[in-house]
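Each field is set out as follows.
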Amino acid sequence: MSLDESTPATIQDRKADHLRICLEDDVQCRQITTGLENYRFIHCGLPELSYDQVDISTTFLDKALRTPLLISSMTGGTEQARLINQRLAVTAQKFGLAMGVGSQRVAVERPELANTFNVRHYAPNALLFANLGAVQLNYSYGLEHCQRVVDWLEADALILHLNPLQECVQTRGDTDFSGLMAKIETLCAQLPIPIIAKEVGNGISGDLAQKLINIGISAIDTAGAGGTSWARVESERAEDVKQRRLGQTFSDWGMPTAECIVGIRAIAPKIPLIASGGLRNGLDVAKTLALGADIAGMALPFLKAADHSEAALDTLSDILIAELKTALFCTGQGNLKDLKQAQVLQHIP
């Protein structure tokens, strides 16, 4: 492990910093966008269906979802994070959403913090994803650690997040990504649940997706550029001028979310695909689904609502669902399968 991570309290402090910075500071990408603004739906003035008939239910990794939304991985490891995760889990259960937790490494280092992640009690029927950094497979982690975080959460799948840029900017980050493909392949063969490969805001290309699929990855989360910049987040908490400058230089690095979806679908039409990275409303969600994603993930909107109250999460979820259903209704599509198959999304030159 890197020097700062060998002290468990430091990991917990970093979790608290990440929450504070994301909630209080402007750490969004400023130049690069999701690319979704380059697409527009063809309006249907006569939908020939009732709004009440619009069905947004789906399945993902063989589990039913009433809504094709993922509360993307965010946090854990602190008391504030425990409350946020609890509220998010209640929302996932209530509205039929999927949910991922933040990196559980802090709980591996300090098992007494596992309860800040373990939300199955609040979401007994939800699709839940455990989460660890893929790079930790090069820092003494293996099957035992992955199985442990899965068991704690009673998770349906494990996210391995890929974050080379964040580790470069993070003070004394873990930057040895050599040989990870082989280790991920071994883990895919050993772990009895699906493994999802996820970036953290810089995107996954079609070429990388193909390599990941070839080694046994079961699903991919684009986590493209256009939303929160983790280079900017790490720059805000950097301990020296060099790391701060690195984060500023690379704050708009990455592939737009829309570009990732199109690129991955071009080479892998059937891989379970999560679209995330800068999505802010139900219309964004509808566009990603029409482009070929199976479900769509959001982090910041849910984080801000969860920091406020469960009622705020209810309001946000109601709005997102209404926006998504309205997009289907006003394009004349009664369900998500029809939306994907219909040619109702135009690219704007």
